[in-house]
Specification:
Layout (H helix, E strand, L loop, with lengths): L12 H8 L19 E9 L4 E7 L5 E11 L7 H14 L9 E10 L4 E9 L3 E2 H6 L8 H20 L12 E3 L5 E3 L5 H8 L13 H4 L7 H16 L9 H12 L35 H8 L12 H4 L3 H4 L4
Antiparallel strand pairs: 1-2, 2-3, 3-5, 4-5, 6-7, 7-8
Bound molecules: adenosine-5'-diphosphate and magnesium ion (MG).
The site of adenosine-5'-diphosphate has 20 residues, from strand 1, strand 3 and strand 5.
Catalytic activity: L-threonyl-[protein] + ATP = O-phospho-L-threonyl-[protein] + ADP + H(+); L-seryl-[protein] + ATP = O-phospho-L-seryl-[protein] + ADP + H(+)
GO molecular function: ATP binding; cyclin binding; cyclin-dependent protein serine/threonine kinase activity
Keywords: ATP-binding, Kinase, Nucleotide-binding, Serine/threonine-protein kinase, Transferase
């Protein structure tokens, strides 16, 4: 892989976080490529998502350590990389310094080609490599499903990672099994967050369908949202760990909402935002149910835990921090 000789970058990464939050952040002069992409030997593609391609690679300059290289394209303006993108990358690097056990570690950021005609720059984000994602992990489970103790541990790690992001004012917005990685020792780590603005640009260039199954109702209804959207998605993921099936496998936005209402009940007219294009009457009237109505594998405590995560009203969902104190996490699994 070739690394073009860009002179956009002039300051070491350690300075970025400070400058990214400064009012005088200068996008064109504060970002240095800390390693040459030529030092990585690409082995195979491990993921092609909506926003980029992920390769398994060998870090030749670091004892042939296996890494995951995520190739993304960012828009270039006349000043170079847009400030938002620089800020996001700086934040990701800064988060890496916490070495949180449930967050995938960003090891480095390198730049590749500058595509003059497309006014884009190729960036390689270098992450620690994990064995598989949660989607593959769930698919490879035996018919007896996930052992109760493993489930309790993974659900706790998921919420611990979410709590860490939220305490750093980051909303993931796209939590789903393919964005949760599982290490060879069975540890869950969150991936694919923090580059929302960079990605938005890429998303316009791709026709990959983004899954709706884990999306909170307020996002589907184009309402303002906050960190509670990640609690909703985490609830869907935990239910899927129990049943090995998506909780709300909607086929369209409207079908997704209808599937959600089969659990939460159809909202009252007063809860229905006036800006939504379809009327509330176009959905069948449904009464609220408990999560075990849809996910029969739930035990009493996990059913109660999920009922605190899957509320239609985001204000009624508990925070990740509060959920980690739930008795489900204290019980001795059967
Ligand atoms: N660090 C990693 N280790 C192992 N596999 C990874 C890693 N990062 C991503 N992947 C795999 O690549 C897929 C796409 O990566 P992701 O960062 O989610 O990109 P996208 O933005 O395209 O969804 C993931 O679903 C996962 O299967
Ligand atoms: Mg992803």
């Amino acid at each position: 892989m070739r690394c073009s000789s860009l002179s956009l970058f002039a300051a070491p990464f350690s300075n970025i976080s400070m400058m990214a939050s400064s009012k005088h952040f200068n996008a064109g002069a504060v970002f240095r490529c800390s390693t040459d992409i030529d030092g990585y030997e690409e082995l195979n593609v491990i993921g092609t998502g909506a926003y980029g391609t992920v390769y398994k690679a060998r870090d030749r300059k670091n004892a042939n350590q296996i890494v995951a290289l995520k190739k993304v394209r960012v828009a270039l303006t006349e000043d170079g990389i847009p400030m938002n993108t620089l800020r996001e990358i700086a934040l990701l690097k800064q988060l890496g310094t916490f070495q949180h056990p449930n967050i995938v570690k960003l090891l480095d950021v390198c730049h590749g080609q500058r595509l003059e005609r497309e006014k884009q720059l190729v960036l390689f984000l270098v992450f620690e490599h994990l064995e598989q994602d949660l989607s593959g992990y769930i698919d490879s489970l035996p018919s007896s499903g996930m052992p109760a103790r493993t489930l309790q541990k993974l659900a706790g790690e998921l919420l611990t990672g979410v709590d860490f992001l939220h305490s750093h004012r980051i909303i993931h917005r796209d939590l789903k099994p393919p964005n949760c990685l599982v290490s060879s020792t069975g540890q869950l780590k969150l991936a694919d967050f923090g580059l929302a603005k960079t990605y938005d640009f890429e998303m316009k260039l791709t026709s990959v369908v983004v899954t709706l199954w884990y999306r909170a109702p307020e996002i589907l209804l184009s309402q303002p949202y906050n960190s509670a959207v990640d609690i909703w998605s985490s609830g869907c993921i935990i239910a899927e760990m129990f049943s090995r099936q998506a909780l709300f496998p909607g086929q369209s936005e409207k079908d997704q909402l209808d599937k959600i209402f089969s659990l939460t009940g159809r909202p009252l007219p007063a809860q229905w935002p006036s800006t939504v294009s379809y009327s509330i009457d176009s959905f069948p009237n449904r009464s609220p149910r408990q999560p075990n109505y849809l996910c029969h594998q739930l035990c009493e405590l996990s059913n109660d835990l999920l009922s605190k995560m899957l509320a239609f009203d985001p204000r009624k969902r508990k925070s990740a921090d509060a959920l980690l104190q739930h008795p489900y996490f204290k019980q001795e699994p059967l």
